[in-house]
Amino acid sequence: MRQIIAMGGGGFSMEPENLLLDKYILNQVKTDLPRVCFVPTASGDQTNYVERFYKAFTTLPCQPSHLSLFEPEFEDLEKYVLSQDIIYVGGGNTRNLLVLWKEWGLDRILKKAYNNGIILAGLSAGSICWLEEGLTDPLNGPLYTLDCLGFLKGSNCPHYDGENKRKPSYHRLILEGKIKEGYAADDGAALHFINEALFTSVSSRIKARTYYIKNIGEKIIEEELDTIYLGK
Q: The domain that contains 126 carries what CATH number?
């Protein structure tokens, strides 16, 4: 079974006191202590980001580790990645992430991991990367589209409710045919795909939602998807 859990935002890095999405990801592995590897490439392996990952995940039933391409500690990258149960990709610069992954051959290894049943998850850049195209935002720059790994069809727009320019830009680019139709997720919401089809949507915030955005007759249709709140 192939699984991808793509978060619009949330998880330990945005909601350190609310780990509902992180727990949901762990719960998809049918072992008591799943091995979860954090990949912070998009942030330049920012030390503080890695520390926040360990602070959160050492409180959860799992075996946490991280994968650095800037200060690598592995002897065999493919063997290390394929030994994991979950690959959890952090946010940051999606373009830099993709360039580095391809240079290291990590894109190819992740495709193998995916086909082997290792769960791929992440937020923001770590959500965009799995689809064919994504809407990304460089610091102080305009939003632009980006060709991604294409493990899933369509495009992806994270932070749909969290950043003012996201929603109108995504709509406009779809209307102009500059990006494929696709999925949008609010901060605190996640899209769970199984075998390349959307299985469910879940959220760590009561009002967080997911959507499918399409162009019908030169008009944007925003289809709200059923989203299950993970809290009580």
A: 3.40.50.880
